[in-house]
C-alpha cells in the first residue's frame, strides 16, 4: 500500500507484530498503530502486535506492476528470532523475482541478519538497513557491513543521543529522525548537524526525516532552513 513515510513510496507487511529489544522500541509507533487497526477490525491485525505471518501477502509485490520503492515490514522485523528462515527465504525470493521494485529492509536484530546473510540472495534491488538509536547500538552497523547488500543504510531514528564517531565505511545512506508520539523523547539539533557533517565528509547521502515530538507536522522537517532528502543513486535493473 502507499506510504506517507518520507523516504519510501509503499509498504509491504508479510508479517506484523514484534517484541521490544532496545530503547528505540520503547514507544513503538507500529505497536500503537497495530492496536488501532485491531480495534478497527482489520483482519491482518486480529492478533494486535503479536508476531503474525501472513502467507497471503508474501507475493503481493508481484501484483504491483508499476515500479515502487517499498519498505519491507514497516510493522515488524523480518529478522525477528521467531520468524522461520524458510519464511525469510520466501520473502527474498519474491524480492528477487520482482526486480522492477526497490526493496528497503530495516532490522534491529543485526546479529541474526549477520548469521543469515550468507544464505540469502542479495540482488541489487534489495537494500538492507539497521536501526541505531544511540552509541550503545553502533555494533549493528558492523553487522550490516558483513552482508552482501549493494546498498547498506542506517536509520538513526528515533535518535536518542549523539553519535559523534560513526564508522560510515561501506554505508550508502543515512536517515535521521526524532521520535514522534504522545511520549516522544527529545532530539538535539547538535546531534543531527553532527551526523549530517559526518555524512558529508564521508560522501554518504543524508536524509532528515523529522524533528518529531507530540506534533510532528508542526515541528516539520527543516534543518538549518532547508530539507535534506538525499538518496542513493542506483539503477533499477535486473542483475
Which helices and strands appear, and what pairs or packs with what?
Layout: E1 10-12, E2 15-16, H1 29-39, E3 52-53, E4 69-72, H2 85-97, E5 102-107, H3 110-116, E6 126-131, H4 139-145, E7 151-156, E8 173-177, H5 189-202, E9 206-210, H6 216-219
Parallel strand pairs: 1-4, 4-5, 5-6, 6-7, 7-8, 8-9
Antiparallel strand pairs: 2-3
Molecular structure report:
This protein is of the alpha/beta class. It has a domain at 68-219. Helix content is 23%, strand content 16%. The chain has six helices and nine strands. The strands form two sheets. It has a seven-stranded parallel β-sheet. Helix 3 runs parallel beside helix 4 (139-145). The radius of gyration is 17 Å and the shape is globular. It starts with 9 loop residues before the first strand and ends in a 20-residue tail after the last helix. Residues 235-239 have low confidence and may be disordered.
Outline of the structure:
The chain has 239 residues and is α/β, with parallel strands linked by helices. 23% of the residues lie in helices and 16% in strands.
What key attributes describe this structure?
6 helices; disordered C terminus; 239 residues
Proportion of beta-strand residues: 15-25%
Q: Helix content range of the residues, please?
A: 10-25%
Q: Can you count the beta strands?
A: 9
Q: What is the helix tally?
A: 6
Structural shape: globular
Q: What's the overall average pLDDT, rounded?
A: 95
Run of helices and strands: EEHEEHEHEHEEHEH
- Summarize the main sheet: 7 strands, parallel
Oligomer: single chain
Structural class call reads alpha/beta
**Distance N to C terminus:** 26 Å
Low-pLDDT stretches are 235-239
Overall radius of gyration: 17 Å
In the sheet with the most strands, the strands line up as: 1-4-5-6-7-8-9
